[in-house]
What we know:
Largest sheet: 6 strands, parallel
Distance between the termini: 82 Å
CATH topology of the largest domain: Rossmann fold
CATH superfamily of the largest domain: Response regulator
Helix content: 25-40%
Structural class: alpha/beta
Order of helices and strands: HHHHEHHEEHEEHEEHHEHEHEEHEE
Strand content: 15-25%
CATH class of the largest domain: Alpha Beta
Radius of gyration: 26 Å
Number of strands: 13
Strand order of the largest sheet: 2-1-3-4-5-12
Amino acid sequence: MDSRDDPAQSRITLAAVAARAGVSPSTASLAFSGRGPVSDATREKVLATAREMNYAGPDPRAQSLRRGSSGIVGALISDRIGVSFRDPVLIQTLDGLAEELTKIGASLLLIPESESGSVTVATAPIDALVMMCASADAQESARTLACRGIPVIQVEGPDIEDAVNIRVDNRGGSRQLAQHLRDLGHTRVAVVTLGVDRHRRLAPLTPEAEATATVETTMQRLHGVREVFPEVGGMIAGSSRVDAGRAAALALLSVERELRPTAIIAQSDLLASGVLAAAEELGLRVPEDLSVVGFDGIRVDGLERRLTTVWQPAQGKGLAAGRTVLAMLAGEAVADTDFEVSLILGDTSGPVPAAAPAA
């Protein structure tokens, strides 16, 4: 029988390996860690003995308990992992965060806010938490972690006591988009928004939905548009997906011509790409019949148009969050970070159609 199948073998300890190798347990531990004053010959002797005994090495869980840390940083994401990994903005942000975490050898654990499972914000063995556009519903969990002394970093979300904030000028960027359309003569404008709460569903943008909204990014971008178009309405797409943008746009555009918006402000470039698909499906020319603008400044696969949009530093947000994590874990003083955005003019926005009736 293979000794690996023997239950007794699974209980072999580092101390037993050390005894057979003729070294102290501390020396054996240093041999496995690859650090410390252990000669190459001694290290190879310990590792060879471990192989003979089918000992795989110290249990990382026990190591974590001794260190008082797990070497894991949690990232709370607002949607399911499968959906989130189709969002280029989130991927770029996570890339920036992971790049910084490699400096201390930390791993990244993704925790979807929208799913319940055995690993949650409250139960995950993490040294710090980075909240990615999380809704206000997650605040209680964040407060719990902060009370335990676990660093909490909020990326584009509601300000949380004891958390450090990484912000983007969502309101100002959306105001720029709205003013651009106003300058082109548009008055009949609609919005296609991201989700307003943790329930990712297509729905009309109603006062009731806004009153119970918990997603800060969505509401900040909406408030920016309302500084220029106070009565603007639209559809809630639910999440940043091309198909969601298409469905929302079809609901807005499949009406009588005199009721149809002449411009749509989408709260992400993926949503804007869906709006463009809906316009093409309905035989509407962009921008001659309909102007379409987005937000993010990313490259959307399959989109051949130069989208009018607002650029935001997606990877920069992640890098800033990672640097903040490292500083907080080192006990250093940290401060909030605020990023500016910029308007990028493309070929999807143009003057209001000459024959379009006023709103």
